[in-house]
Amino acid sequence: MPRCVTLTMMQLSEAFLVLGEEGFARLVRRISIGKLRTYQVYEGLKTRTHLPRINTENLRRVAPRLWTRLAGGEEDLAKELAQAVLVSHLDMIQAILDFLGVPNQNGFFDKNLDASSWLTEGWPQRVWEKFHDQHPDEALLLYINHLGWELAKQPEVFRPAA
Hints:
The protein has 162 residues and is mainly α. Helix 2 packs antiparallel against helix 5 (56-71) and helix 8 runs antiparallel to helix 9. 31% of the residues are buried. It has nine helices and no strands.
């Protein structure tokens, strides 16, 4: 009789939870309101966070509630927050994609890209080792896990080796 194997993929909310609540709060404080508007992420984040207006003070204030919602597995919130954080760190994203050799335009790549030839075994640790002294740990760890979630379909969250 044939066996069915179910592969699970990590949830994006887990990429935030690995940061810890304090790391998450630091990450939220680094969101650039100007970049949210430039990349048209402002309204979506405002809706998902249930805030009447997005500013650094409001984000700082609601970070504990957002953390609780992420811990509850709210994937739509995780996706909006990830976009907000990542557009705030496009220089880091472009540097990482260039380092990995992933074709991109200013940090953006084709959503149908098959990245298997660039995201070879051990790529998350290589990226961590190359960039952890150059960028905030929380942003770097989120992006490594986001890239793994989006392109590599990682089954679990990456945690850097000591």
